[in-house]
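Now read these lines:
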Amino acid sequence: MKQVVIFTCMIALVFPLALAGCCRVEMASLQEELDRSLMERNDLQAKLETAMRRPKQPVQPEPQVLGLTGSLSEFQKQIDAFVSFREDLQKREDELAKLRQAALAEAKIAQERMDKLGTQLQAETERVIGLQDDLKKAQSAIVELQDKLVD
C-alpha cells in the first residue's frame, strides 16, 4: 500500500516537471526563430540603408540647348534612362517595404507565441507547485500513518 501511494506521488511530481521541460524547449526554439527573424530584419534594414547611401551616378555635363550641340533624340534617350532608373528604384523600394512588413508580421506572431507559451509555463509552474504541496501533504500523511502503525 505504501509503495502504491509513493509511486502515485512520484508520478504526480514527475509528469508536470516533464511537461514544464517541453515548454522550455519550445520557448527556446521560438526564441531562436525570433532572433533569426530579427537578424533578417536588421540585414534588410542595413541593405536598405546601403542602397539609399549609394553614391549617385556621375552627372553628365548638360549639353548646350541654345547652342544645339545635342540632338533631341539624345535628350530623349537620357530622359528615358532617368525615368527607367527611377522606376527601378521605386520597385526596389516597394520590395523592401513588403519585406519589412513581412518581417514585422513574423516578429509579431513570434511575440504572441512567446507570450502564450509564457502564460502556459506560468500555469504549469503553478500546477507543479500545487502538486508539490499535495506531495508534501501525502508524505506527511504517510509519516503519520507509519507512526500510528509503529505505536
In short: The chain has two helices and no strands. The mean pLDDT is 82. Helices lie at 2-53, 72-150. Residues 2-53+69-150 form one domain.
